[in-house]
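1st attempt posting a full record on here, be nice pls
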Amino acid sequence: MARKRMLFSFLLLFSILLTACSAKTPGVDSPEFDQAQSEFIEELNIENIYASLNELTKNPRVAGTSSEMRAAAFLTVQLKAEGYEVAVQPFDFERYVIPESQSLTVEGFAGPLSPAPFQYSVDGNVDGQLVDAGYGLKKDYKKIDVKGKIALVAVDKTAFSELVLLASEVGAKAILLYFPDELEIDKWTLGKEHFKEFIPALALTYDDGTKLVELVKNGSPVNAAVKIKGARIDKVASQNLIVTKHPTLEVNDDIILIGAHYDSVDEAPGASDNASGTAVVLELARMFKAVPTNKEIRFLFFGAEEEGLHGSEKYVSALTKDEIKRSAAMFNLDMVGSADAGDLAIQTIDGADNTVTKAASKANEALNGDPIETDFGDRSDHTPFHNAGIDAALFIYDPVEEWYHTPEDTIEKLSKDRLVNVAKIVGTSVFELTFSGMIEE
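the predicted structure (as tokens):
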């Protein structure tokens, strides 16, 4: 009954807008438009969103794996059930495979050591004398000989990758880096740009590092063995899913884009990051199916975001110049449901307002009583769109939750109110944008 009521309202709206077009009156400001928009938002079904969340969070959806493919298959089935044609956009990318094992043994050191690999640590089986290389800078290596040896380096302000490359340049066979931070491997990366130039590198706790320095300073040469096994870069496949709702009213050539990435990191069910955004975009696609619009709406589901925005970059790179010119707004939903994160933020690459932020701020003021100020943020799929000259913004609750990128990212930690809030703001914004500029003043 609700679906029939909504369809009736939209058919009524359709008739009103056609009349307004011929009369050249501002139909989007009419009470009839407001009523239809309100009834559209009422169609939002949180149970639909949670049904998608339950399916998507059964396993981690790591890019390039069968679990990511299963998530794509689930989304495809749901979208086809709504009557959409689903275009699959395949692409390949390079993924770093974390070592299956790593070890460090030091002659004469009795206590346990807890070495950890960096992202982009390379394989190796190295034996050699352990040398205290200070902060691992060029001036430090002028005082010592590390050729064929293992450098022990205290991290200060120099990038990890630079320290590894400096050690390699002076002939070190491996490097151990220690500094006063907890071992959060997903945040410790050397970057893949110089992967082929790296020597084996392991991270140590500050306590382990300082104890090894004391051992080395005792006078007698200390030998060590560094082993890293299974680290590599593989070429793997992922895919984007693209669904297009064609305009019912042949009035405007603009394209409105709504997107989210559906992959997650290893070992994380990825409820917040980013089954939440994916499920909301899927629900918005359902809702907009029956709406007569004067603009094209594309619903985008990106693969391999966690590996470096590969999906969104592939999508943007495949756009024609005409499509880029016609793309008026891109709404990117990433982590839009966590109960433990901060307040809702709308972020752009330059921190400046654009079509998306203005529409969303207006919608939030109507729905929640206040506008939303635009923040800076560049770590998600809106970035390639901005770089191509398309107005784009990220919707995210920020700062993110403490259990971000961990196995604790489960569906129980999501907030229905927060999910609905973002869905309403984006839905309202897109609803109005699909008719803005349609009627001559």
